[in-house]
């Protein structure tokens, strides 16, 4: 029995965590190109309902993210909780296209978003455990978190490219995504280890909240995650619908256009981590945010599908510089015994941004006819892009502290 267990344990490696994160992201974006068919066409609803379908999952993620981090820190395990919620997320995702009413659909979507944050949030917490735990000498050079950021972004890009499934049948992306989540649970069980330094430490909710007051610099990566996801809501709602309706792109073509953001974001995540070790943790975050904000603004001004594609590509470059590096920044600013609550909260704040982003985006676009013509088809892109730039300017007084290597 013992030799067998040792043989199984020898197969486990922390480098399976980036693979698990990649798989976890596939179902998230795989269903985006069929939002129109599942929500707008099926229930004869408008763009606002499509935005709510995206946003309500993010609200669920935000609500349940501190619960995920709190429970995993308290019980001293990430792995068991991840496996459990892979199964629950798969079930809820599979039920979505069969909802009888729009209210039922939105309720299931809320629960699905909550289940998914237990998966992706605790996978990221596991990465932080290995970066700063007993395995720091082996994994603390940024390689693991860089690969995780790269494959997280790549998972989003690859998931969008599965839009061809929706072209065949709009239910297929949900079914295929459920199968992927079940497979992910098996991968985590079979190949992902638990960092040995994790200990069961009972925290009260008060102690968890005080953490952010005693470590105020954590508010900066939280703010960047929020604003990054807030502006990303424009891509998934307003731009998604604009590409489908104004330019008559099919789900597959829409998915490919949106993947122009995720693909360069994925490819730059690991090099950005290596860059941050030379320039400081915050420099790539700041530069990437500026590139992202300017390109986002231009994507709403351009009237050509080619130029929109180019602006989306540069959005991806900026996002690639800032995404994984902001995760590294956050994980370095907290005690390792609080990795769960911090990384899950980081995911949750991003989800809150994603919740507010699509609804705000569609709402602002309703007033687009009152804006001057030079702003283009989406004043939302202009406002969201400026907001991204302003957060960088607001952080300048704290640059030296945040940019420590």
TrEMBL record:
This is Transporter, major facilitator domain protein. GO terms for cellular component: membrane. Keywords: Membrane, Transmembrane, Transmembrane helix, Transport. One of its GO terms (molecular function) is transmembrane transporter activity. The chain crosses the membrane at residues 14-35, 50-69, 105-127, 139-165, 171-189, 209-227, 282-302, 308-329, 341-361, 381-402. It is a multi-pass membrane protein. Residues 217-405 form the Major facilitator superfamily (MFS) profile domain. It comes from Leptospira noguchii. Coiled coil: none annotated. It is found in: Membrane. Its main location: membrane.
């Amino acid at each position: 029995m013992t030799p067998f267990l040792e043989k199984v344990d020898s197969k486990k490696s922390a480098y399976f965590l980036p693979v698990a994160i990649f798989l976890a992201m596939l179902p998230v974006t795989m269903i985006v190109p069929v939002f129109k068919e599942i929500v707008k066409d099926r229930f004869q609803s408008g763009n606002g309902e499509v935005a709510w379908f995206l946003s309500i999952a993010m609200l669920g993620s935000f609500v349940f993210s501190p619960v995920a981090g709190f429970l995993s820190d308290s019980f001293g395990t990430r792995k068991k909780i991840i496996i459990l919620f892979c199964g629950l997320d798969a079930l809820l995702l599979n039920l979505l296209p069969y909802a009888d009413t729009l209210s039922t659909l939105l309720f299931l979507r809320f629960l699905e978003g909550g289940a998914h944050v237990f998966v992706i949030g605790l996978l990221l917490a596991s990465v932080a455990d290995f970066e700063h735990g007993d395995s720091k000498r082996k994994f603390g050079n940024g390689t693991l978190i860089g690969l995780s950021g790269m494959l997280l972004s790549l998972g989003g890009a690859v998931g969008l490219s599965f839009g061809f499934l929706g072209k065949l049948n709009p239910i297929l992306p949900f079914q295929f995504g459920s199968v992927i989540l079940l497979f992910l649970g098996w991968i985590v069980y079979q190949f992902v280890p638990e960092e040995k330094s994790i200990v069961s430490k009972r925290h009260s909710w008060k102690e968890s909240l005080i953490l952010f007051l005693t470590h105020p610099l954590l508010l900066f990566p939280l703010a960047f995650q929020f604003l990054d996801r807030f502006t990303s809501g424009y891509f998934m709602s307003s731009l998604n619908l604009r590409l489908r309706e104004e330019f008559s792109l099919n789900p597959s073509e829409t998915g490919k256009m949106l993947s122009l953001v995720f693909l360069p974001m994925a490819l730059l995540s690991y090099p950005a981590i290596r860059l941050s070790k030379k320039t400081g943790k915050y420099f790539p975050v700041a530069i990437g945010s500026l590139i992202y904000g300017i390109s986002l603004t231009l994507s709403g001004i351009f009237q050509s599908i080619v130029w929109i594609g180019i602006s989306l590509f540069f959005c991806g470059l900026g996002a690639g510089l800032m995404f994984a590096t902001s995760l590294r920044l956050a994980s370095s600013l907290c005690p390792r015994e609080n990795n769960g609550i911090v990384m899950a909260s980081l995911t949750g704040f991003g989800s809150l941004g994603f919740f507010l982003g699509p609804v705000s985006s569609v709402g602002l676009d309703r007033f687009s006819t009152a804006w001057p013509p030079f702003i283009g088809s989406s004043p939302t892109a202009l406002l969201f892009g400026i907001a991204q730039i302003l957060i960088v300017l607001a952080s300048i007084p704290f640059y030296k502290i945040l940019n420590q290597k």
